[in-house]
Amino acid sequence: HAKAAGRNTFAIFGGHMDELLRRRRKLEHDLRLALETRSQIEAFYQPVYSAEHKGLSSMEALARWKHPEEGFIAPDIFIPIAEEIGLIHELGAKVLEDACSVMADLPLISMAINASALELCSDGYPLRVLSRLAKWNIDPKRLEIEITESLAFGGEAHSDRNIAMLRNAGVRIAIDDFGTGYSSFSRVQNVMIDRIKIDKSFIDAVQGDSKPLIEAMINMARAKGLKTTAEGVETDEQSDALVALGCDSLQGFLISRPLARAAMIDLFNGTGKRTFTV
Ligand code: C2E
Ligand code: MG
Ligand code: MG
Ligand code: MG
Fold first, then answer.
1. Using CA atoms, how far apart are residues 262 and 1, in angstroms rounded to an integer?
2. Where are the beta strands (DSSP E) in 68-192?
3. Which residue's alpha carbon is at the smallest distance from atom 12 of ligand 1?
4. How far apart are CA 112 and CA 246, in angstroms?
5. What value of ipTM does the predicted structure carry?
6. What's phi and psi for 258, nearest 5 deg?
7. Per-residue pLDDT tens for 40-62?
8. Which of 66, 114, 150, 200 to mutate to test the pocket of ligand 1 (most atoms within 8 A of CB)?
9. Is the CB of 79 under 6 A from ligand 1?
10. pTM above the 0.90 mark?
11. Cβ contacts of residue 211 below 8 Å, gap of 6+?
12. Are 122 and 157 a contacting pair, CB within 8 Å?
C-alpha cells in the first residue's frame, strides 16, 4: 500500500519536474530568439525625482521582455536565465543602447542601468560601456551603473578594477537594494561608489521601525559624500518622511511606474501626465 502511494507521489512529482524543465528549455530558446530579433527586449524607464531640484532629474532603465505569446515576462525571471546561458552581455548591451538613444534625446537627464555581476566581472565590460557612450557622444558622467552590495564590497579583483576604470572615465556607481546584503556600514568607508539606493523593504516602514535605520544610512552617506535614493516610494507620507530625513532622490510608483520610451519622453517633456504630488 505505502509503496504504491510512494510510487504515485513520485510519478506526480516527476511529471511536474518534467514540465518545469520543458518550460525552462522553451524560455531559454525563446530568449535566444528574442535577443536575435532585437525587438522583443527593450528598456522601460522609471523616472527619479530629485528633492533638491524639485523635479525629475534622472531615470533608471529596466529591461522588459515582450514575449510574443506570453506577454511581458519579468526581469526577475529572465535575467537569471540570461546569466545562466551566457546571454546577459547581449542583454545588457541592448539596454545600454536603448538608454544611450534616450540620453541623446534628453540632454539634461542622467540615466542609470543595472549591471549583472557577470558583466561587471568580465574583462571587456568597461571598454564596451565607454565605447558605446563615445559612439553616441554622451558624457560618461551622465551614466550611473547600479551594482549589488556584494559586488561593491566583495573585494573581487576583476570587479574592483572594472569599477575603477569606469569611475576614472566619469561613470558613476550606485549600490542597488542597499541594506539587503551582508555588508556593514564600516565597509562603505573604503569603497569607490557615488550613491546608495535604499531598498524598498526599508522604505515600506519609513514611518515606523525603519525610520532610525534610514536616518543612519542617510547620515552615513552624507558623511561619506554619497548621494541617496529611496527605492519603491509608494505614498505621499513616505515621500514627506524621506524628504524630511534629507534623502536626495525618490523613486517609486508614487512618482511614476517604469514607462515605455514614448510615454517617458512625454512625461519628461511636460506633456505627459505627472503622477506624483511631491
Ligand atoms: P531593481 O534594479 O532594484 O529595480 C527596482 C524594481 O522595483 C523594478 O522591478 C521596478 O519596477 C520595481 N519598483 C519600482 N518602484 C516600485 C514601487 O514603488 N513599488 C513596487 N512594488 N515596485 C517598484 P523590475 O523592473 O521588475 O526589475 C527587477 C530587477 O531586475 C531589478 O531590480 C534589477 O535588479 C533587475 N533588472 C532589471 N533590468 C535589468 C537589466 O537591464 N540588467 C540587469 N542585470 N538587471 C536588471
Ligand atoms: Mg536598479
Ligand atoms: Mg533596487
Ligand atoms: Mg531589486
1. 63
2. 71-73, 110-114, 143-147, 172-178
3. 232
4. 21
5. 0.99
6. -60, 135
7. 999 999 999 999 999 999 999 99
8. 114
9. yes
10. yes
11. 205, 241, 245
12. no
